[in-house]
Amino acid sequence: MDRKRSLAYVSNQNGSSVSVIDTVTNKVVKTIPVNKNPNAINFSPDKSRLYTSNVGSRSVSVISRKTNTVIQTIQNVLPEPFGIAAVSNKVYVPGQYSGEVAVINARSFHVIERFQVANGPVTITAAPSGQQLYVTTLAQDIFIINIPQNKVVQTLPSGPIWGLVFTPSGKSFIVTNFDTNQITIYSASTNKPIAQIPVGLAPLGLAISSSGLRAYVANSRSRSVSVIDLVSKRVIKTIPVGTIPYGVTVTPNKQTVYVTNYDSNTVSVIDAQSLSVIKTIPVGAGPRGIVSS
Amino acid sequence: MGTATGTQATQSLFAYVSNQNDDSLSVLAIPSNRTIKTIRVGQLPNSAVISPDGARVYTTNRGSNTLSVISTSTNTLIQTVRGVGSEPFATAFAPNRGRIYVPTLYTGSVFVLDSVTNNVLQEIPIGNGLVGIAVSPDESKVYVTSLGTGISIIDANTNKVIETIPATGSWSVRFLPNGTRYYVNNYGTNLVSVYNAGNNALIKRIPVGAAPLGVIVSKNGQRVYVTNSRGSSVSVIDTSTNGVIKTIPVGFVPFGIALTPLNRRAYVTNFGDNTISIIDTTTNSVIETIPTGNNPRGIAITS
């Protein structure tokens, strides 16, 4: 039933839970307890499941969207899990301090491999082709991993990067430059930067509308979200939100923007037409990751 | 204080270890290395520091955005400090000023606390991704390392940033006891940078292991020890030559490091395998490995 509703799922790191928000009523309809300290959340490719990487328990929680309950907790994944991506029947989890990526078989729930990537991974994103994974790091560069060899095949010099998302067409990807307070648009075919746009302080998460026309960036130290017109490549509005805005998602249907405020324990709801906050929803403690259907 | 008999401290020593994933602080007796008590603290305690007078241990708790203050005489939690921003990451003391400085990762500020009451007196906005801090030995300046803004130097009289040194991914900073130089590990580039504290000029870059996190300087100023989190090793630097004289294999993801008062032993928390490696600093080899709680991170030893 829940798969027909438009829902947003929030990983509450310090509340060790996932808040489920009905995006029509903008109310929390369920709070799902998960293992200790979930910092990132993502869908399985068929969207039947959610996975959380749990930074304070070396684990991954698997949630069924049919029942909105945890169906499996995968232990001993690696120290300090810090992001999660699912491709085909595998789940990939980078570890911030060991610099590895753990590969989990999504059927058996076993860790089948761990491979070394780099110092300080923070985000892992699957390329739309499903052939590659992009890992950003706070320490140095962006790393491109080929599936299924699970090897770094290219390193993009970039400085510290937090978020990385692909545009719906898959032709480009956008990253947040944590140190220089800007975003950089890369060509996905050449992996070269094509534009840089200044945003607020210490940008973390970002999301792109399904039209591919707009990007929304969480400026963690500015308590704001920058709205970028991807045609003119300019910031068209800066919207005040809560304290330490962290994750961002745009709902596929109504194009509503949801932003987690890590230090306010809330989610700001932004109407994509008026570009203003229409509601602030209390969630669990330390909301970080967010995805929506 | 331990007396310098040349062989062993005559008084009991204790190590305090923050077990990040257990939300606890373990007290180890030295030299038996047995855990004598485990104290509940805030969520995700990522650092543990003993106050200069030895009376208290402070943990920063990045999951509950608090500091836990523990009495070393009773080994009990005596205070929880709030209002220190989002993800406090380290603690440094200026005992003559009666101040404590706490950098926070996401708020990007240094919070200034009164060291008697532990009240937050001031927030100093600094930059993006603050992780480390040290007070110069003369207490005139506070140095803050970051993942996004380089090394920021705060004038301790005015609490204003007076200089920012570009440095990508600097994690920790520690001074020589005489205050002439400071050592900063570059997390991204696998280096330790040595700076002249008089003019903040870079003296040397020293290659170490992968992803260096912890740095400590021996109290005689002769050695610097660096934990290489992805190298599963500790680099030992001779400060007279600023060269690495030994790389010691330790456990998985070594993070924190502390020395016993006479510099005879180094204790290294292995965040990745729930152990502490104990290094004999004379031979620079691991003599014992002991189990800890989950994800040991911060460590401090009484003097």
Characterization of the model:
The complex is a heterodimer of chains A (293) and B (303). Chain A contains no helices and 28 strands. With 293 residues, chain A is mainly beta. Chain A has a domain at 34-157: YVTN repeat-like/Quinoprotein amine dehydrogenase (Methylamine Dehydrogenase, Chain H, 7 Propeller), CATH 2.130.10. In chain A, the strands form 7 sheets. In chain A, strands 3-2-1-28 form a 4-stranded antiparallel sheet, with no helix packed on it. The mean pLDDT of chain A is 96. Chain B is mainly beta and 303 residues long. Chain B has a domain at 83-166: Beta Barrel (Thrombin, subunit H), CATH 2.40.10. Chain B has strands at residues 13-19, 24-30, 34-40, 45-50, 56-61, 66-71, 76-81, 92-94, 99-103, 109-114, 120-125, 130-135, 141-146, 151-155, 160-165, 170-175, 181-186, 191-196, 202-207, 212-217, 223-228, 233-238, 243-249, 254-259, 265-270, 275-280, 285-291, 296-301. In chain B, the strands form 7 sheets. Chain B has a 4-stranded antiparallel sheet, with no helix packed on it. The A-B interface holds A 13-14, 36-37, 55-58, 78-80, 97-99, 116, 119-120, 137-140, 159-160, 178-179, 181, 201-202, 220-221, 243-244, 262-263, 286 and B 20-21, 43-44, 63-65, 85-86, 106-108, 128-129, 147-149, 168-169, 187-190, 210-211, 213, 229-230, 252-253, 255, 271-272, 294-295. Chain B: This is PQQ-dependent protein. Chain B: InterPro entries: Host-pathogen_enzymatic-act, N2O_reductase_N, WD40/YVTN_repeat-like_dom_sf, YVTN_b-propeller_repeat. Chain A: Pfam families: Cytochrom_D1 (PF02239).
Keywords:
A: 293 residues; Methylamine Dehydrogenase, Chain H; four-stranded antiparallel sheet; 57% strand; B: Thrombin, subunit H; disordered N terminus
